[in-house]
Amino acid sequence: MPETNADDILSVVKGFDQHGYVLDESLATVSFLMIKLRRPLLIEGSAGVGKTELAQILSRYLDTELIRLQCYEGLDVHAAIYEWNYQRQLLSIKLQEQSEASIEEKEEHIFSDQFLLKRPLLKAITKKDKAPVLLIDEIDRADTEFEAFLLELLSAFQISIPEIGTIKATHTPYVILTSNGTRELSDALRRRCLYFWMDYPDREKELKIVDKHLPEVDAQLAQQVVDAVQGLRSLQFDKVPGIAETIDWLEALHHLGATSLDSDLIRQTLGCVLKTQNDLQMMDEQTIESLIA
Amino acid sequence: MAPTHDSSTLRDSVLTFCRLLRQHGYLVGVQESIDALVVSLSGITEYNQFKQSLQSMVCTCRDEWVRFDDLFDEFWFTRGIPVKKKKSKKALASKQKGAVPLLMIGSSEQKELTEEGSRTTGAQAIERLKKTDFSEIPEPERARLEALVLRLFRQMQLNLSRRMKHSHRDGHVDLRRTIRKSLGQGGSPVRMVFKKRQQKKNRLIALIDVSGSMDSYSYFMLLFIYAMQKHFEQVDTFLFSTRLSCVTEALKKKRFKEAMDVAGQLTDAWSSGTRIGETFTTFIDTYGKRLLRRDALVFVLSDGLDTGEPAELASALAHIQQRVKRIVWLNPLKGMKEYEPLARGMQSALPYIDVFASAHNVESLLSLEKTFRHV
Predict the structure, then answer these.
(1) Residue B56: which of A9, A33, A74 has the nearest Cβ?
(2) All structural domains of chain B
(3) DSSP state at residue B284
(4) Which residues, 6+ apart, have CB-to-CB distance to B5 below 8 Å?
(5) By the number of CB atoms within 10 A of the CB, which of A10, A22, A225, B64 ranks highest?
(6) What ipTM does this complex have?
(7) How many CB atoms lie within 10 A of CB B370?
């Protein structure tokens, strides 16, 4: 495959590293397989562990376009795959009124390519120059019916449009699906995908990630913040702080001119890490003290 | 380190390993086996990478993902012909045992991991389970019933969400259908087609009796509420016996087991007596202002065996009824043939209840679909 320079797992790790994403071995292996086999990859894990970012970095690494479909309840074919340009169709019908063309010809005309509005999924399989990365974000938010549409796409990489027929993929896209697990996905969908369970990073990995994003920050402060967040994750919060929260918090502290963490600073900046009233209330003096220790 | 250098031995080993996974409940079909072979021949030779590749190929959910490590190491380190090992199942079962402090039921202690054959459950068995009273379900069946119930409830909630979508004459113009229809008339949209917004969802307030007499019923009611959450704009769930505890947040956990664990920690008064009137008054004082609104549906699950003052219950219910859309009282005793609502608590509650139904088995819960649809 001339499009990729992913010859082995190590080169994938290096490539991602250059784009600022820390890949551990298991994720690197899966990414490598996904690139090589062109199988869709389903990533599950809590919010804020870097699922979406993986797709963004992958597209940069492969130097190709990222096409993103954000799922939501009620997402339908017309928002995900295609829609006809009704206004233009109406206009065209009016213009053709006087023409000699038969009804069949007229119908064929108004359902031709120029009236077709491509939504993300169709865009992804009709991309001309090279295979794009298709990110189907938070698939668990979409309805079960939508999952069924996806099955055809993910197994045969083709889409059927009643008025036109079947459109086959020009290049098989690299598909990444993410899920926060708010709904159980169907077995059929799961079986078509490679699977990866993404957990919160351990201390070493999180330090590396923080260093990638904020190289200018004092190393001691970074360590303290990472330790504190790691500690916070073990508590029962409504919204467990993710990697983005760690980075936000560290950045805030950095801008406040802090070089080491103390309880006053934590109290002032707690809003960067904990995002609900309940969670903030859980942070009493004792808990805050334990974070510094 | 490659698991082995001889490719035909490797192929056999991979296939044997796939069989082992199947025995442990993994959905490894022919396709997955082929995938696994592809990996083994793709030049990935490092032990960990080989493991991770297979892991991503054959696992389909977190549970399988977590168990995979041990299975893999056990198989590839020993390299023996795998006999059906009970060990990891037992390990798993005991792990669950530790994780479930709660509910009255202790269902998971007895839960045996289902063998692969039981993924398909006989239709007759399902029908029978649906009709069995919750309190009479034998322990070994409970796990199966739970899984079945969760599926049925989800199906019901899906039915409900589908049924709301269609409409004929109000809402937005559906341009797509309009144009399609207009072709026959030379393109003039003579007949407009409409589509309607999905109805605004209701809110649900569930008050669930967890006193001793209600044990198994409240457990399944919680399961029911848990599965129906998506159907409602918002669900607030409270458990009561002599005291009231709010378990709304707990039920938002992704797995029901987890939800029950948290709920169990929040509630100290499982399975003692019941003072319904008193706890309802507490509910009104603490949450009433915020929750009791016209778009709310109130579910009470209780047998009405009240040790408190009936008058207090009556006035509390009257207060609630004036403020919400509908009160549905579910009494599992109503499932019994000769039952009449004679208990003092039940007597004083009846005038304020809009729907009085039973909730003693799966079927009765499923028949609540009507109640949901007509709100």
Answers:
(1) A33
(2) 7-113 (no CATH), 126-197 (no CATH), 203-373 (3.40.50.410)
(3) I
(4) none
(5) A225
(6) 0.77
(7) 10
